[in-house]
């Protein structure tokens, strides 16, 4: 390999002068073996990485490109180098190297995140956790499992099949458990089983100073000190690199049944969802799909359902209890004008239904071949959901965008897949303006700009709008745990002082 | 009031030189109106407090004493002054005053904590939140409520009675919601409804710099930045002062039934609990009481039950589902030798049963009138629980202590009420040594030294034993959010560098 200088491997000046960098640390930066450098050459970096991981580091353009793009609309931001660690000790050595060389370090899971969460905004080293994908230890009696971060949720559930247990969090994509932890993922079953914050018992994390810590032991609950586990869940790799995750598991339900129900309008569907939740029925999934999305799903998955708003339900429990839950839900749906409550009882029918649901991204894209989707992610208190949806539908008509809706309606979280040509600057700008109005609408209703996708690079401006000076507290935590700012820099918030509550 | 100097109002030298204090801040300390002082006189402090809260501040010995003692065995540690704020703005002004005068500030709820969590170890100002006890806003459709921290759980549930909703976390004592939040409390219903970390949606917190932040909005879930909510839950007032709490509520169950069942030994009872949890029955409570505790309960509550290990059950749900759950549990109990499954179906019977359970502290003390209880709090993975209990029972016999057991067995959390004469140094030392062996046993089984009481002043030495270098990460967070170390100093961990994994 040529001893070329790597222009983007040094982070831009803006990051270096941010408050996350302490002046007294500057003298310790940018040295190799004690010799100060300007921009370390790629050769030096590769040689240092080879000493840690052998040939499991690559600067090949194809590998870099694979780690810079996502399924979202964001422009690709490839790293300079991709490294594939296999052990926590290797991760520690890589973190130490990046700190020494002042290189950005971006942890990377399955690449399914939607807000550019793992984009290498400042170049540097991408830490692909894909080879750390083992299930390390299962405790069936305690219903927990310890895994490496690179295992995907489908791989995990395949390995759990014979234990009588399963891991319920289902964000649609076959994401890695590490990525799901880092973005505080949730998805269709969160209404029953909670989000990642509720299903991670403990973590092993490599801190920016190279030490590996364990955030908690395996007890089901603890009041021992600060909740470090939940601090790293959702931190998007900006506070440490997650190297092990202990997850709660749940008993595979004795019986499962699913159903679909058509509604005359969105409000009737939302009122049904509110009624079901308030009735105390522990519905396992309750998904809203609007008429436009149903058209896309008919196109993509040949569902053959009427193109009006629908709820998809799933119920888990004993046979008798599943029947009781479903009858309660059906009665509430009927009270709200729901029609044609159709059951999917066999595993094949259920699989077809939820496979179609998991593929709503492609169903949406089927409505406009060649488009990309800007996927919105607001979440509001459920009492405000109908208002938020109706106002948003009117806004869509006004601004002339096509955007099918799919929602985790039991949690008040919904996505619009705003179909755009990302090469068309006017359309992109129009979509961004629409999303900003949506976020402001959600926040005005006491909601959040992101229910489950995280802030990444896409929603940084909205965070201060949502949480005001609380973002300063986050900055203080970042400065304490990553004083050199090497961990996934440029994500969640900008390092400069906050624009308190100002417009994004 | 005389212009007396207050000897203990300045914190001891050891705290001032700890790493939580930054040298560059020293010059800003200990000044009033720009004039440096040695130890501010009580008169000056009272005058400054009066300017904020009028006559709602007291240095009367009785008031101080009331805020220094607890139900636990720890020696009383009264504050110098007790102040009773009524608004967030007053709390902000008090925090600013304490920072200016370098005074410790200790938030105080109902005084029911068990590890000296609100003891004024270094004197200073006790912030009694009892006058901030309002329910501010209820959203029945969203099943959430915003309250002030001083409201107790019983006050809250009394106000919720007509809404069809309730707040399930029940630590036994009528604790304040702020205190329960700060200690990450849980109790008998955590097995079904989770702990405080699972039931707090958002907080308003006054930071050490005097700013009030809101940690989250009211959406049921969010992936917007670091999980500040859960950072303050369980921080025991060391990172900020909680001034508002938004809680999740739950539907009042349509039907409730309770039952008691006797077992031949502890292991049979624990195996029943494991079986019930694994069966997927969402048991609302499942409490273990050993033979010694049953004797105490018969003495104190005249339960008239056989003095052998028992499980107390409660089931919530629809009538049909409650019956199904109870039948499943009864069958599992019978498989494990459980006898005399007795139902408490009427509200009166249930109340009598759970009132007796809530009063196990007094039941334990009834076994040795005049004694105090050192209440242990380990929590282990449920598969290790029988081993931990059996070994602990043998240890008790060996060291000659009397200690009835009550356990949240579905979570692997159990308490021994070690009955001691706190005036007898030998007995106190013997009890402390027993507790240390218990904690080491629990940690060796991958458990925690505290399931729900917190670290406070009583378990600081165990925290490093349990979490090793993770405690350093906690110290970094404390330093970032409370650089002057004014908030509940001397709790959770000692400010000096950790003794990594060393013996307590």
TrEMBL record, chains A, B:
EC number, as in UniProt: 1.1.2.4
GO biological process: lactate catabolic process
Biased composition (Basic residues): 10-19
Cofactor(s) needed for function: FAD
UniProt entry tagged with the keyword Transit peptide: yes
Superkingdom as given in the UniProt entry: Bacteria
Keywords: FAD, Flavoprotein, Oxidoreductase, Transit peptide
Gene3D superfamilies named among the record's database cross-references: 3.30.465.10, 3.30.70.2740, Vanillyl-alcohol Oxidase, Chain A, domain 4
EC class (word): oxidoreductase
Ranges for domain FAD-binding PCMH-type: 75-252
A Pfam short name: FAD_binding_4
InterPro entries recorded: FAD-bd_oxidored_4_C, FAD-bd_PCMH, FAD-bd_PCMH-like_sf, FAD-bd_PCMH_sub2, FAD-linked_Oxase-like_C, Oxid_FAD_bind_N, Vanillyl_alc_oxidase_C-sub2
GO molecular function: D-lactate dehydrogenase (cytochrome) activity; D-lactate dehydrogenase (NAD+) activity; FAD binding
This protein's name: D-lactate dehydrogenase (cytochrome)
């Amino acid at each position: 390999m040529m001893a070329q200088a790597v222009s983007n491997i040094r982070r831009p000046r803006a990051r270096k002068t941010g408050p996350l960098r302490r002046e007294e640390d500057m003298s310790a930066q940018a040295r190799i073996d004690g010799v100060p450098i300007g921009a370390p050459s790629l050769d030096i970096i590769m040689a240092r990485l080879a000493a840690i991981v052998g040939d499991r580091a690559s600067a090949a353009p194809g590998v870099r490109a694979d780690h810079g793009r996502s399924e979202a609309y964001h422009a690709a931001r490839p790293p300079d180098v991709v490294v594939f660690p296999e052990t926590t000790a290797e991760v520690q050595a890589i973190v130490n190297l990046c700190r020494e060389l002042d290189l950005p370090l971006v942890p990377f899971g399955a690449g399914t995140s939607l807000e550019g969460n793992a984009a290498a905004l400042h170049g540097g080293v991408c830490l692909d956790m894909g080879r750390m994908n083992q299930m390390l230890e299962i405790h069936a009696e305690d219903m927990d499992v310890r895994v490496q971060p690179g295992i995907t949720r489908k791989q995990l559930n395949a390995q759990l099949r014979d234990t009588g247990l399963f891991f319920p969090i289902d964000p649609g994509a076959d994401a890695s458990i590490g990525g799901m932890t880092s973005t505080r993922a949730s998805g269709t079953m969160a209404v029953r089983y909670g989000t990642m914050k509720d299903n991670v018992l403990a973590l092993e994390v490599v801190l920016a100073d190279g030490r590996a810590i364990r955030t908690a032991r395996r007890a089901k609950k603890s009041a021992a000190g600060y909740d470090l586990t939940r601090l790293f869940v959702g931190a998007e790799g900006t506070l440490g690199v997650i190297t092990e995750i202990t997850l709660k598991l749940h008993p595979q339900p004795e019986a499962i049944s699913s159903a679909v129900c058509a509604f005359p309008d969105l409000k009737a569907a939302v009122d049904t969802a509110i009624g079901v939740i308030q009735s105390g029925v522990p519905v396992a999934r309750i998904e809203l799909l609007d008429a436009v999305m149903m058209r896309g799903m008919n196109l993509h998955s040949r569902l053959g359902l009427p193109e009006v708003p629908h709820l998809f339900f799933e119920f888990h429990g004993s046979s008798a209890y599943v029947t009781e839950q479903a009858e309660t839900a059906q009665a509430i749906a009927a009270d709200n004008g729901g029609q044609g409550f159709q059951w999917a009882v066999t595993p094949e029918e259920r699989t077809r239904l939820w496979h179609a649901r998991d593929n709503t991204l492609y169903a949406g894209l089927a409505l406009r071949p060649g488009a990309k989707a800007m996927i919105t992610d607001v979440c509001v208190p459920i009492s405000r959901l109908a208002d938020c949806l109706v106002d948003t539908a009117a806004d869509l008509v006004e601004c002339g965008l096509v955007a099918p809706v799919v929602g985790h309606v039991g949690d008040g979280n919904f996505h619009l897949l705003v179909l755009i040509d990302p090469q068309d600057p006017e359309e992109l700008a129009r979509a961004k303006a629409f999303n900003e109005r949506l976020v402001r609408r959600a926040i005005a209703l006491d909601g959040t700009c992101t229910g489950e996708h995280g802030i990444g690079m896409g929603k940084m401006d909205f965070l201060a709008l949502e949480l005001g000076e609380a973002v300063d507290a986050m900055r203080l935590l970042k400065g304490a745990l990553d004083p050199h700012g090497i961990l996934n820099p440029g994500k969640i918030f900008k390092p400069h002082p906050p624009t308190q509550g100002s417009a994004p």
